[in-house]
Amino acid sequence: MASTTSLTERKYIVPFIFVTSLFMLWGIAITLGEALNRNFQNVLKIKPSESALVQFSIFGAYAVMAIPAGLFMKRFGYKYGAVFGLLLYAVGAFMFIPSANAGSFLFFRISLFVLACGLATLETVAHPFIASMGHQDTSDQRINFAQSFNGLGTVIGPLLGGLIILEGTAQEQSLESVKILYTVIGSVIFVLAISFAFVKVPALTDHHDAVDDKVAAKSHGSLWQHKHFIWAAIAQFFNVAAQGGTWAFFINYGAQTQGLPDEQASYYFGLSAALMMVGRFLGTFLMRFIPPNKLLAIAAFMNIVMCIIVAQNFGWPSFIALILINFFFSIMFPTIFSLGLKNLGPHTKQASSYIVMGVVGGAIFPFLMGLIADHDIAAAYYLPIICYVVIMLFGWRLYKPR
User: Fold this and answer.
1) Of 34, 42, 350, 356, which has the fewest beta carbons less than 10 angstroms from its beta carbon?
2) Is 226 helix (H, G, I), strand (E, B) or coil?
3) Banded pLDDT at 83 (limits 50, 70, 90)
4) Beta strands in 66-114 (DSSP E)
């Protein structure tokens, strides 16, 4: 198969499948945070602004771990970087057992932090890993394809959260279901880590080293000379800020404005995540005909419109707009990531660490939205508009390598 016309080369098929599965695994972990958010409100009797510290623990780990993960990847390679990330993921999941036994919100946040350090490592490794399994011209399509399975994970997460965590909470008002679920997750992730250690990965040629002539002279200078990378990191900060805030209060919005039971609101969140998965597959296809940056700008504009509708609290029309946010959000993370890595040559791995570090936006924004949500859940959705304006500008003008 020619690398210029296909997602990857035949020799990379097995590692490509395995690394693509990693995208699904962190999608499950991230979206389970929303069910945990509501569960802790119900069982531990905390306010929405306090429960937003769940997202702070998850996304804050990215700020701490992204650069160490990049250094580990540079020293030991993509494969063992992925194994290390999976092991951290498993350890964090197993830590839920003593946290549930203690019934401590602080212990849960520490467990989530360790788990999310694993997620940060996986994201730092997986994006350039996938990008290297083919030509740079198709890296946008390759990353969006892999991120489509992240979308599958974000469908599975809310379903597990609604069925096991929230439904169990409604019946028992306990943390037992949380402990059981994360014990199973930790066991599965640990087995995958050991399995991947035995997967043979052919030698990789990082096609990002083949930079355009116009920027070749700069590719071996400072990473910070590449303004499109800097703007990508900023756009990713605001992108995940909007994602973290929107997801953190989705179940609250459904319960408070539509009168839905928590577990039913979680299933609607699963529907929203399914639309995100559809959006990524569709986006991967459309990028064959429409430049990725233009699709990104259009999607950001549409989410500005959706947020305005959500904030008006029109009933079901606003709730449907909330569901649709994930559809337009779908291509944002992988497309920003891929555009930010263009023409960076030997700086690609280091740049990946910094762009992943931008995920810390998801640690800050939910708390700010939570302060408003304590009084008016609908009005809180005005805040993500700021984020989508920044993303729209990046896709429209600021993405260009210079």
Assistant:
1) 42
2) coil
3) very high
4) none
